[in-house]
Design brief:
The protein contains nine helices and no strands. By secondary structure, it is mostly helical. The protein has one domain: Globins (Globin-like, Orthogonal Bundle), CATH 1.10.490. The structure holds protoporphyrin IX containing FE. Protoporphyrin IX containing FE binds next to helix 5, helix 7, helix 8 and helix 9.
Length: about 150
Amino acid sequence: MQEPKKPNDVALPIAAVDPAAERAAEQSIYLQLGAEKFWQIARAFYARVDKHERLRPIFPEDLQEPIRNQAEFLIQYFGGPQTYSDRKGHPRLRMRHAPFPIDLTMRNDWVDCMRGALIDAAIPEPIVALMMAYFERTATFMMNKP
Ligand code: HEM
């Protein structure tokens, strides 16, 4: 007979159970998606930024360099080659974002564009959930304005 479900027997985010397991899961994503999917995500993300009333003005006019930065960074973070750091050094994301005014609204706008980009690039579950958990917490960490 099956054990009755305990009241706390719920699906916790993997990070709440084992942060090392979550990091290992994140780092398996590159192997599952391949480099081209990350370029698709970066292009889809910046296509959304390009049309965004609040986000567009804080990005450079030419989005080719941001697309490259984002694709190479995500490839590196999610377990692929370290091309980003070979080119630019340690990501130091919070420092690199200091020049841009990032409040809760901008943070949420950024996260919405990224969620949309994962859909545009047809990224499957459970990879979307893992990637979004990373984006949600990191975007919060980027906030530098009340
Ligand atoms: C999960 C959260 C985020 C990640 C992983 C991320 C990642 C990055 C990376 C890797 C770069 C390139 C930095 C460089 O190499 O110089 C960058 C640049 C930038 N980010 Fe973010 N970012 C995040 C959140 C945000 C948010 C919330 C905003 C503002 C709403 C923002 C605005 C910018 C801007 C304006 C740039 C400059 C464009 C460029 O030079 O590539 N980012 N971000």
